[in-house]
């Protein structure tokens, strides 16, 4: 999945849908339609609750999908893996008419958009580079998806089981705006999205500490699988250190200690930074002037 170029034409969504989506608590996810050059496409929209560093979004991400359930019911799973940063999952009930419309459009056009919305309403657009053989799991199960009778109770039970043991490991997004017809309406109340301005890696002031800690922990875990030394980890984490600074600014020492106890990766980078700071103060580490 690649990031859309800055020259991407104007994208259009339904204004009410966007307003309702932005009003929901993150991390969350919604389905809808988006228009480019007068053509409607499916859109998968994510609000992780913090700004994903530009260096990460420039790499694009991996979209996974699966059809879960049993002989009696089915759920659709989407997984969004932002390389080296974080993984997000969402489970959808295919008996929902909006889900069927959006998934059918994805398969009909072999083309769709994914949007990420940051806390300061930054929008980053990704356009799928897929062919007719992609999304094979959905294509093979489209008849079952269109005839799905999955009940709310079956959805909730499977969601609870997945939350307890997510596969792949990652943050579970809350599916919102699931019954909003406006999400599919591009004929009235149109909202045009201008190209997003260039962004740095500084996270917004209102990012929640636990989301920052989770993002840092996920990044560190991905890096340390390669057996990095402390100095190598420090260098590899350079573009994510603003997130750690933001976390320190938003927590007191006790809160930060509690987060470090919860997230082992966060604890390790905190100790690395502490050791480097001590080395600089003692003169053992020289900082270029």
End-to-end Cα distance: 41 Å
Sheet-strand content, in percent, reads 15-25%
- Secondary-structure class: alpha+beta
The count of DSSP E runs of length 2 or more, i.e. the number of strands, is 12
Task: State the helix count.
Answer: 11
User: What's the number of structural domains?
Assistant: 2
- Point out poorly predicted stretches: 1-7, 196-206
Summarize the main sheet. Answer: 8 strands, mixed
Percentage of residues assigned to helices = 25-40%
| Average predicted local confidence, pLDDT | 82
H/E series: EEHEEHEEEHEEHHHEEEHHHHH
The rough form would be described as globular
Radius of gyration (Å): 21 Å
In brief:
This protein has 289 residues and is α+β, with helices and mostly antiparallel strands. Helices cover 38% and strands 24% of the residues.
Structural topology:
Blueprint: E1 2-3, E2 11-14, H1 15-23, E3 28-36, E4 39-47, H2 54-57, E5 61-69, E6 74-82, E7 86-92, H3 97-109, E8 112-117, E9 123-127, H4 136-140, H5 142-146, H6 152-164, E10 171-172, E11 174-175, E12 190-193, H7 209-224, H8 230-236, H9 241-249, H10 253-262, H11 264-282
Parallel strand pairs: 3-11, 4-8, 7-10
Antiparallel strand pairs: 1-9, 2-3, 2-12, 3-4, 5-6, 6-7, 8-9
What does this structure look like?
With 289 residues, this protein is of the alpha+beta class. The protein folds into 2 domains: 2-193, no CATH class; 209-282, no CATH class. The two termini are 41 Å apart. The model is unreliable at 1-7 and 196-206 (pLDDT under 50). The radius of gyration is 21 Å and the shape is globular. The protein contains 11 helices and 12 strands. Strand 5 and strand 6 form a beta hairpin. The strands form 2 sheets. Strands 1, 2, 3, 4, 8, 9, 11 and 12 form an 8-stranded mixed beta sheet that branches. A 4-stranded mixed beta sheet has the order 5-6-7-10.
